[in-house]
Amino acid sequence: MKNTISMDINGTKVTATLVNNSSTEELFKMLKEGPLTIEMEDYASMEKVGSIGTNLSTNDKQTTTKAGDLILYLGDKFVIYYENNSWKFTRLGKINDVSQNELKKILGSGDATVTLSLD
Known about the structure:
Layout: E1 4-9, E2 12-18, H1 22-32, E3 36-43, E4 47-51, E5 61-65, E6 69-73, E7 77-81, E8 85-95, H2 100-107, E9 112-117
Antiparallel strand pairs: 1-2, 1-9, 2-8, 3-4, 3-9, 4-7, 5-8, 6-7, 6-8
């Protein structure tokens, strides 16, 4: 399975490396149909979260997140962390080559629009 995706976050392009699990396999199948745009809201000053419009299988494990971690929450929420958190999550992957400060700047302080694609 290919393990990188492209992400456009508020107009800034980054890449992410995905882990290998059933959740990411299902996400890849969705992205083969075309890009997925997610309207994300800031939550608790630590993450951006938005609905992917469908449920993916979950692989929840106790996880401590770091800035740039991509998480599936409750099967239908895509989450980008920019601060640490510890909870039972499904890890999807991590944004490549972006520091915590750079990520906070890219995400901005309010809502964010994120488009995932395979290109």
